Amino acid sequence: MQIAYYPGCTIKVSAPEHEIAALAVMRVLGLDLHEMREWNCCGVVHSLATDNLIRHMAPVRVFARLQQQGEREVVTLCDMCFNTLARANQVARRQPEQMDAIKATSGDELNYDGSAEVLHLLQILRDRVGMAAIKARVRQPLHNLRVYPYYGCKLLRPTEVGLDDPEVPTVLGDLMAALGATVVEGNLQTRCCGAYHVVNRENLVAERVAATVAQARANGANAIVLSCPLCHFNLATRQSNPDHALPVLYYTQLMGLAFGLPPATLGLPDATALFEEALPTAHHAQAVPMCTKGER
């Protein structure tokens, strides 16, 4: 299976380990993510103003380039890119007059008809590969890992573009279960981490991170797993005690470890130290158990 891949700016700059791990595990699963030949920033935040067409030009340009390259589907790893592109695609489909205006403004360069599909990698894993196929690839089940899946907001909201139930999502938990981990849950899994407020309201972000980490620990987690680079930054860098921080990992990295890939190929050169608490004996291949979910 081949599919066009849109990396976006954040993945390349702030989360290269997520991309490295994703490409590695996709190869194991027989999928080829080929990076778009030409791409630009997605625009980061979807504009809610109906007449602010300039804010739609960046994501529309991504789709126009995709269409020009003869592709109809594109996958992304970044939650914010996924959200921004998916919502811009809705504008393209529902408001063709705005697309005509963008096309005219760009001198016909941005000619896009709304026919493309943008997918998050989690959708590919869940809906096309399937959890059974992922489970079959496991060589080192993560039996000793008790993981707290953190979804944040951009994967799930608004519901018209979200990839799972906005209140009770399961995709990350199901994926971790397929890898042999035990899943623990809590009602803060879907709360915003504070996002870009870390720039000017660091106390707000620190409070949210503290509450989320405390809940994960109280429910027995020894690691947090997520998909969003901004959530990763906040949760990994704003814990109050860096010497005893709860590990924060991308789901792609845990997939790679469970598949038996070398940590260095997953952006984890110091995996032994990182997983000393979370994965004390994760290298004993056994049958993969079903997860046990904690109460919400």
Automatic annotation (TrEMBL):
MF (Gene Ontology): oxidoreductase activity
Entry keywords, A to Z: Oxidoreductase
Domain of life: Bacteria
InterPro entries: Cys_rich_dom, HdrB/HdrD_reductase
Ranges where the Cysteine-rich domain occurs: 3-85, 150-235
Protein name: Cysteine-rich domain-containing protein
Higher taxonomy: Bacteria, Bacillati, Chloroflexota, Chloroflexia, Chloroflexales
